[in-house]
Amino acid sequence: MHQGTGTDIVGAAGIAGARITIIVSALGAGGTEHVVSLVASHWARLGCAVTVITLEAPTSAPYYRLDPRVAIERLDVPAQKAGKLRAAWLVARRLSRLRSTISRTRPDFVLSFLTRTNVLTLLATRGLRLPVIVSERNNPAVQPFGPFWKWLQLRLYPRAFALVTMTKGALDYFPPDVRRHGRVIANAINLPTGWQKKRGNNVLTAVGRLTEQKGFDLLLEAFAKVAADHPEWKLVIWGEGEARKALEAQRDALGLAERVEMPGVTPKPGLWVETADLFVLSSRYEGWGIALLEAMAAGLPVVSFACNWGPTDMIAQGEDGILVENGNIDALATALSNLMADEPLRARLSANAEANVRRYDADHILTQWDAMALSALEHSPTRKAAIKQPSLPVSGELASWMYMASWIF
């Protein structure tokens, strides 16, 4: 159990014994999966019965370590491309299994992560009289969803007990009927245990899924502009994703094959902090930027696009990091070049970053999740009485929602 103030202890005591079901699409490598493992394990240590439901296959293994007391239910209905008829069948199966599993776990409240899963969860819990907390983990204004997805999101979110975002900017995107039940809870620092500093090899490091959002194509362009001026430096991009082939081709076309490494996902979460000497975040947009926070907590100098949302919450410009205009490749190249050439500046930014991000330590952030949980428990009918019908029939309204949802999965 994390230590805290007397108020924190009272909150933790109020949560002990609760039955909590957390829903996320998968438990692979990623910022959302990271926070799920942190929060679920914390509540299990407090004495809660925690179940994590995922849509992934039964053979899937978590990337982040979960407390052994956390139960994992894998529904074996992962997202996949399909024609309209098969998509309709898949979404009905997904909703049916999700509803059945939620009922069987008899939760006092449900916590769901990510937009598509949030929509599924709100559909699957219709009529169960459960407080459902939904959490957005990205920038909702620019996520690549179609208009019908957005319509479903805005239609269903007012029915949630609460919405959790990581920044006020993300929360402000939503209309008042959703925002009035909103809370802002940032991501927590959670560096790997026993990590060691293996620095001094002039390694510029970037971390994230290899997707268009993360802007690694912009980073390669920026690094190409200054690589010749700093021959002792190399760029290492940690992560995996669908853009790998395109990024490798771009790297090679820029003549950076010997200067840029793309080793995939670290064998242990967060282990990239050991070998990095300078961290860069090149995202076009973010929900938060957990890798940036981890870099600062590990005492690394950082450069980041001032994208919405996250980096501007964490970095005090010129004091504990460098912010550059979002998407400005020339500005990014200049900032990187300045830092690669200036060791005293890197040392000053590193020391300030490590001190300034302590406000995001795990104890402080988990206390905020405890307060959210306590609020949900105070409004939970199952806190006094168990769900009487574990497998409730699908209502006419839910059936119509299922049919409509099938055309977007």
Short description:
This protein has helices at about 5-15, 30-45, 85-105, 115-125, 145-155, 170, 175-180, 215-225, 245-255, 290-295, 310-315, 330-340, 345-355, 360-380, 395-405, and strands at about 20-25, 50-55, 70-75, 110-115, 130-135, 160-165, 180-185, 205, 235-240, 260-265, 280, 300-305, 320-325. The chain is α/β, with parallel strands linked by helices and about 400 residues long. Helix 3 (about 85-105) packs across helix 4.
In CATH, the topology of the largest domain is named Rossmann fold
CATH class of the largest domain: Alpha Beta
Strand arrangement, largest sheet? 3-2-1-4-5-6-7
- What fraction of residues sit in β-strands? 5-15%
For the record, give the distance between the C-alpha atoms at the N and C termini, rounded to a whole number: 40 Å
CATH H-level homologous superfamily name of the largest domain: Glycogen Phosphorylase B
Sequence stretches where pLDDT stays below 50 over 5 or more residues:
1-7, 386-396
Give me the secondary-structure category: alpha/beta
Largest sheet report: 7 strands, parallel
Whole-number average pLDDT?
A: 90
Number of domains: 2
Treating each run of at least 4 consecutive H or I residues as one helix, how many helices? 15
* N to C succession of SSEs: HEHEEHEHEHEHHEEHEHEEHEHEHHHH
